[in-house]
């Protein structure tokens, strides 16, 4: 289909099918639809929107149709995004299944696994969490100790994960486990999937400085995992882990577009007003904000450039570490400025006016950006080693 | 956003090869140490003509190669890597843009082929004070019959001492600070009343202070419409700012590459200094900044190729970031080279000197931050 026809038809469809409630500016986290067995829709419109988009495969526009995707090309997907943005349409569904497990299964999963899991992710029926970090394996992820013993037709899993995002709300987990304790640390890891309802799985939320508990400790006590839930090759899970980490780092852009719902210039003008030339009336802050705005533009342009280069067969590889590093550091910088702009209003933690401290909680949440998914220091180490090839890095 | 296609990659590679051969950094030293009259090599300039660079923004009907802004920037970046001194930016980028977009048919027919053939060097005389500010143009052009008389002073006229022609921004109406009332004239640098003082800069390159004392400009010497020259001037300057940002990317990238090599050679405490994480992370951070800058420079080129009249915010974003990144790159380079970085013998200092000029030229970081902000109504 010619792109212009696709654009016209997409625009018409969205105009007819995106419910009014789903065109209101999202407040971020409280308005996200995560889906899953126990999901309680925040509104009827949220439910309708998910169903309609899922029916077209547009919750995962670029996945193949046979797995519940939209089968769109990169260009078509871009048009869909643009047209959604044009009417302020919210994303119908966000999930770790979409961002992480799906791409990994498409790359490494067998046909049965793809058929079983991908459509449920696309329809928002199963919510996934990621079992990576352990108390003793943070930046040094490959030293993880959770054991999966071979018991013939199944693995017996024992150990503990930490920082498992939304483990208490998730239905299934994709998990890194040690299947060969004798091998070198990168060589004895496998990638398995299991239901969080399996006996022996318990979760315990961790209270964070934001006052919220998006992360959990997750315990596995003699958890039985069928062999067919092994993804890829036994003891070669690190390949998938690395692929996913790269994916996660590259997808930081979508995380940032959530943050971009707050506009620094907009908030600053509301707070300080303009001078007689139409400039922000606070010149010191103006310079700080412009610098952040230009860096934001540079980051988006770099994401786009890497996409174009990847498409042209010019390898991007370890450079995705730059996106993770620059994106998260910028986001932290931006939130420091939001807090400056908000002044004492931004310090309200429990009040109706502040919607129970949305801003200070978001500000605190951004501090995790440069820790999760590989710290800034790990990212710089990757650049030093893989790109600059510095000795001993 | 685009990835470089094969033609452009070829252009970049051939530029790199040509400049490494004809104008390595040692060539700048030779010009400096021999106190060259011109401050650049005419042989090199003629070589650039053979490469198609002098006509890089000139259309084919007027003898140019018309590679577009992406191509122009690739060449500038490579010139930044070798610290190449030439009138490329003033003549082939800014003057060519001004004449192509604002010249009469006659002016185009006369000057565009002359630029493409490397027969004419054209300098832009814009700044009058210490800081770049085209709106503040005060040099007066008073109507006298069908002609004009120009009176006033210009400073930091890059390549002014070797220019055959000068494009001068003058005020025919309004007050300094107004965008309207600015007119451009394209006049002979040897016109009576023009006095040119060559100034050798910190980067061993050249600019001039120029006095205009009752200089005659015919009506036909006006470039574009009288009183409405600001938009045209912005077109020319934006092309120049983008080329300059690309040069800054080259200066920063080259000093970075040399620094990374040094980190792998220099030993202290029995180790390569590149083994120290304190230096590794600073180098890696700088690599990230260079990547971000590269994207903004490319965005500005794409915006200029698409529509020069709406490219201002992309150009300012690039020039702002270029100033910050090049400053960081050369500062880190000198620091990591240690004592050697302070010596004249090691080239790094030359990169630092050039970087300082490029930060100031055509608007510093503050100028472009403000311009970017205004484009966003902020």
What layout of secondary structure does this protein have?
The complex is a heterodimer of chains A (393) and B (378).
Chain A lengths: L2 H15 L26 H13 L17 H13 L9 H13 L2 H12 L5 E4 L15 E4 L3 E12 L6 E7 L10 E7 L5 E5 L9 E12 L3 E2 L5 H14 L1 H8 L4 H9 L10 H29 L8 H23 L15 H9 L9 H12 L6
Parallel strand pairs in A: 1-4
Antiparallel strand pairs in A: 2-3, 3-7, 4-5, 5-8, 6-7
Chain B lengths: L5 H17 L2 H9 L8 H9 L17 H15 L5 H15 L2 H12 L5 E4 L14 E5 L2 E12 L6 E7 L10 E7 L5 E7 L5 E12 L4 E2 L5 H37 L1 E2 L2 E2 L4 H30 L5 H26 L10 H13 L4 H11 L3
Parallel strand pairs in B: 1-4
Antiparallel strand pairs in B: 2-3, 3-7, 4-5, 5-8, 6-7, 9-10
Helix pairs in contact in B: 1-4, 4-7, 4-8, 5-6, 5-7, 7-8, 7-9, 7-10, 8-9, 9-10, 9-11
Explain the overall architecture.
The complex is a heterodimer of chains A (393) and B (378). Chain A is an alpha+beta fold and 393 residues long. Chain A has 12 helices and 8 strands. In chain A, helix 1 (3-17) runs parallel beside helix 3 (74-86) and helix 8 runs parallel beside helix 10. The longest helix of chain A has 29 residues, at 283-311. In chain A, 40% of the residues are buried. Chain B has 378 residues and is of the alpha+beta class. In chain B, helix 5 (88-102) packs antiparallel against helix 7, helix 8 packs antiparallel against helix 9 (312-337) and helix 9 packs antiparallel against helix 10. The longest helix of chain B is centred in the middle third of the chain and has 37 residues, at 229-265. The mean pLDDT of chain B is 97. Chain A binds chain B through residues 265, 268-269, 278-280, 286-287, 289-291, 293-295, 297-299, 301-302, 304-305, 307-309, 311-312, 314, 319, 322, 325-326, 377, 379-381, 383-384, 387-393, and chain B through 1-5, 260, 263-264, 271-272, 274-275, 277, 280-281, 283-285, 287-288, 291-296, 298-299, 317, 320-321, 324, 366, 369-370, 372-374, 376-378.
């Amino acid at each position: 289909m010619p792109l212009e026809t696709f654009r016209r038809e997409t625009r018409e469809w969205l105009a007819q099918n995106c419910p009014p409630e789903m065109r209101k500016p999202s407040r971020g986290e409280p308005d996200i639809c995560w889906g899953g067995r126990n999901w309680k829709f925040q509104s009827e419109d949220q439910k309708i929107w998910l169903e309609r988009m899922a029916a077209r495969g547009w919750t995962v526009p670029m996945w193949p149709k046979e797995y519940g995707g939209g089968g769109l090309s990169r260009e078509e997907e871009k048009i869909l995004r643009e047209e959604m943005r044009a009417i302020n349409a919210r994303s119908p569904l966000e999930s770790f299944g979409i961002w992480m497990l799906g791409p990994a299964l498409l790359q490494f999963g067998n046909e049965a696994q793809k058929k079983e899991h991908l459509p449920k992710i696309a329809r928002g029926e199963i919510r996934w969490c990621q079992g990576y970090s352990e108390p003793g394996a943070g930046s040094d992820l490959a030293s993880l100790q959770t054991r999966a013993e071979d018991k013939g037709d199944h693995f017996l899993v024992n150990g503990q994960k930490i920082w498992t995002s939304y483990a208490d709300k998730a239905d299934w987990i994709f998990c890194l486990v040690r299947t060969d304790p004798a091998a070198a640390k990168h060589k004895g890891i496998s990638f398995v999937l299991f239901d969080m309802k399996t006996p022996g799985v318990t979760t315990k939320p961790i209270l964070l400085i934001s006052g919220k508990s998006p992360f959990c400790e997750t315990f596995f006590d003699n958890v039985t995992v069928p062999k067919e839930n092994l993804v890829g090759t036994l003891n070669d899970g690190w390949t998938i882990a690395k692929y996913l980490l790269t994916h996660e780092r590259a997808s930081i852009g979508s995380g940032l577009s959530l943050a971009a719902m707050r506009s620094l210039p907009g908030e600053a003008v509301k707070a300080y007003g303009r001078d007689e030339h139409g400039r922000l009336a606070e010149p010191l802050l103006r310079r700080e904000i412009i610098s952040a705005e230009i860096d934001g533009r540079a980051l988006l342009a770099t994401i786009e450039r890497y996409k174009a280069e990847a498409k042209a067969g010019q390898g991007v590889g370890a450079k995705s570490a730059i996106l993770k590093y620059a994106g998260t550091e910028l986001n932290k910088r931006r939130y420091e400025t939001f807090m400056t702009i908000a002044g004492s209003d931004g310090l309200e933690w429990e009040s109706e006016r502040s919607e129970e401290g949305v801003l200070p909680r978001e500000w605190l949440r951004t501090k995790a950006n440069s820790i999760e998914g590989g710290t800034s220091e790990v990212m710089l180490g990757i650049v030093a080693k893989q790109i600059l090839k510095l000795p001993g890095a | 956003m685009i990835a470089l296609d094969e033609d452009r990659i070829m252009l970049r590679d051939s530029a790199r090869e040509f400049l490494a051969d004809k104008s390595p950094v040692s060539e700048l030293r030779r010009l400096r140490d021999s106190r060259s009259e011109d401050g650049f090599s005419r042989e090199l300039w003629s070589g650039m003509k053979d490469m198609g660079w002098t006509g890089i923004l000139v259309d084919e009907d007027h003898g140019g190669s018309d590679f577009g802004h992406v191509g122009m920037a690739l060449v500038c970046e490579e010139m930044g890597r070798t610290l190449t001194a030439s009138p490329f930016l003033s003549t082939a980028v800014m003057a060519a843009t001004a004449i192509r977009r604002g010249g009469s048919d006659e002016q185009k027919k006369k000057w565009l082929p002359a630029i493409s053939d490397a027969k004419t060097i054209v300098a832009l005389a814009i700044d009058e004070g210490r800081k770049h500010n085209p709106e503040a143009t005060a040099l007066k052009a008073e109507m006298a019959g069908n002609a004009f008389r120009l009176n006033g002073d210009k400073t930091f006229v890059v390549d002014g001492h070797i220019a055959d022609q000068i494009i001068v921004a003058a005020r025919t109406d309004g007050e300094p600070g107004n965008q309207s009332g600015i007119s451009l004239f394209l006049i002979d640098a040897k016109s009576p009343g023009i006095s040119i003082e060559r100034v050798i800069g910190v980067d061993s390159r050249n600019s001039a202070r120029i006095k205009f004392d009752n200089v005659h400009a015919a009506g036909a010497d006006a470039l574009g419409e009288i009183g409405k020259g600001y938009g045209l001037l912005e077109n020319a300057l934006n092309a120049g700012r983008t080329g300059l940002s690309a040069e800054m990317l080259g200066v920063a990238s080259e000093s970075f590459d040399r620094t990374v090599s040094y980190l792998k050679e220099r030993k202290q405490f029995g180790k390569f200094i590149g083994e120290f994480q304190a230096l590794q992370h600073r180098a890696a951070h700088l690599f990230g900044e260079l990547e971000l800058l590269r994207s903004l420079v490319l965005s500005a080129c794409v915006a200029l190729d698409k529509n020069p009249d709406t490219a201002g915010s992309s150009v300012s974003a690039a020039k702002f970031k270029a100033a910050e990144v090049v400053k960081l790159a050369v500062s880190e380079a000198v620091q990591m080279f240690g004592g050697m970085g302070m010596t004249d013998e090691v080239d790094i200092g030359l990169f630092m000197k050039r970087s300082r000029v490029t930060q100031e030229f055509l608007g510093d970081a503050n100028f472009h931050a403000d311009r970017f902000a205004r484009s966003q109504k902020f």
